[in-house]
Write a structure and sequence with these properties.
Elements: E1 2-5, E2 8-12, H1 22-34, E3 43-45, E4 56-59, E5 63-66, H2 71-84, H3 89-101, E6 109-112, E7 132-134, H4 136-148, H5 153-168, E8 172-178, E9 187-191, E10 195-199, E11 211-216, H6 222-231, E12 234-238, E13 242-246, H7 248-253
Parallel strand pairs: 4-12, 5-10, 5-13, 6-11, 7-12
Antiparallel strand pairs: 1-2, 1-3, 8-9, 8-11, 9-10
Bound molecules: adenosine monophosphate.
């Protein structure tokens, strides 16, 4: 689903579903498009495609929430975390600017980890990870855990599925995400090695900016990565560990182990 107001991105969503669930899902996507905090769309597009290949089955990333109390603390943590993953200061600066300084894009930027080159073909749109989903059993399991932790089931579940598909690509070193929803202030950093780290206070409430950056290895073949992100169907079929709140030092300490 894609909703926009002229050139402005309002809302987007995607998933892999069984045929019998299509009507229900279309209704829920439509209601999401019509009731988004970014505003009323002037155009909504819903595309439904039959899948002709078996999806790749993956495990979700382990989830942690970092104990961060302010926007400054959140961004200090992100910078140290990304540096420890061998992402250059230049790339971190570019990513921070992309997320803060412009209108939200529909998709993500692909940024090389050292030289900070943007690889996506369409710099205004970015690349959109699609054809991703979660099996019914894994969904019930994850929904149960999210409920136990008092978290928003739809938003967090969809983000964990997306981050798990993205981190599964061997070219991707890390992902940084700030919601474009003006009222959703928790973002995340994720990587295959470290998992999915929820970052409270990543965003000042009320801001319409937001975005995603996929940091990738220098020698990344962007055609093959884009093909994987946009067209390879990937289903989360197993749920990894779900942790509570940990301190920034605990999170950073485990990178060196
Ligand atoms: P959201 O988490 O839906 O608030 O999205 C935050 C930002 O992430 C959006 O403004 C887009 O730039 C980007 N984004 C959202 N969905 C995707 C996706 N499926 N693939 C790549 N980037 C996305």
């Amino acid at each position: 689903m894609r909703a926009s107001q002229g050139d402005r991105h309002i809302s987007g969503a995607e998933g892999l579903y069984n045929e019998e669930d299509i009507e229900k899902i279309v209704k829920s996507y439509l209601s999401r498009a019509l009731n988004h905090d970014r505003g009323k769309p002037s155009q909504i597009t819903i595309t439904i495609e039959e899948l002709n290949e078996a999806p790749l089955l993956i495990e979700s990333l382990p989830v942690y929430t970092i104990d961060l109390k302010s926007n400054e603390e959140a961004w200090n943590f992100i910078k140290i975390f990304l540096k420890r993953l061998n992402i250059s200061e230049k790339a971190i600066k570019t990513a921070t600017e992309l997320i803060h300084d412009s209108e939200a894009m529909r998709g993500a930027s692909i940024l090389t980890q050292h030289s900070s080159r943007r690889l996506e073909h369409d710099l205004r749109r970015g690349v959109r990870a699609t054809r991703l989903g979660i099996t019914n059993d894994a969904r019930s399991a994850l929904t149960g855990v999210l409920e136990e932790h008092g978290l928003n089931r739809t938003v967090v579940l969809e983000a964990i599925v997306l981050a798990s598909k993205v981190a599964h690509a061997p070219e991707v070193v890390a992902e940084l995400c700030v919601s474009d929803d003006p009222n959703y202030t928790t973002g995340y950093v994720a990587s295959h090695s470290m998992g999915y780290l929820r970052i409270p206070e990543i965003k000042i409430p009320g801001s319409l900016s937001g975005g995603r950056v996929f940091f990738v290895k220098e020698d990344t073949d962007v055609e093959s990565l884009t093909r994987y992100l946009e067209t390879t169907p990937v289903l989360v079929h197993r749920i990894n560990s779900f942790h509570g709140i940990i301190s920034p030092d605990e999170a950073l300490g485990s990178i060196n182990n």
